[in-house]
Amino acid sequence: MKMRGIFLSTQDTGESGTIYGLSFGVMVIDPSHPPVPYMLSTLSQEENALRQSLVELDEKMTLDFTRHAGNSPSKVYEQYQFLRKRWKGVVGSSPNI
């Protein structure tokens, strides 16, 4: 499934909002959940392992979860949270993030 829409919010949509978006092919962007392409654009070239993990996650985020039983929206969200935390550790707490 390709992304069918974007939901942009000025408020944190929380875990349930992001999982709902993944389930229905909607990219949810809020202050707490930057999109994977943005996270990739802020990484230096030296961060190859994190970059590869984010690329793989980005591919998983567009899956049709009804056809890929091994990846549920909640599991993909857990991976997103883990990699987002690693990304924040690498790029720091910039006011632009």
Describe this structure in words.
There is one protein chain. With 97 residues, the protein is mainly alpha-helical. Helix content is 49%, strand content 8%. The protein has helices spanning 14-23, 36-41, 48-60, 73-91; strands spanning 5-8, 26-29. It has a two-stranded parallel ribbon with strand order 1-2. Helix 3 (48-60) runs antiparallel to helix 4 (73-91). The mean pLDDT is 87.
| Cα-atom radius of gyration | 13 Å
The global form is globular
Overall mean confidence score, pLDDT: 87
H-E order: EHEHHH
**Beta strands, count:** 2
Distance between the termini: 28 Å
User: What percentage of residues falls in helices of 4 or more residues?
Assistant: 40-55%
Strand order of the largest sheet: 1-2
Which percent range describes the beta-strand content? 5-15%
Structure annotation, total helices: 4
Runs with pLDDT <50, length 5+? none
Q: Helices and strands: which structural class?
A: mainly alpha
Largest sheet: 2 strands, parallel
Outline of this structure?
The protein has 97 residues and is mainly alpha-helical. 49% of the residues lie in helices and 8% in strands. Strands 1-2 form a two-stranded parallel ribbon.
Secondary structure layout plus pairing:
Elements: E1 5-8, H1 14-23, E2 26-29, H2 36-41, H3 48-60, H4 73-91
Parallel strand pairs: 1-2
Label this structure with key terms:
97 residues, 2 strands, mainly alpha, 49% helix
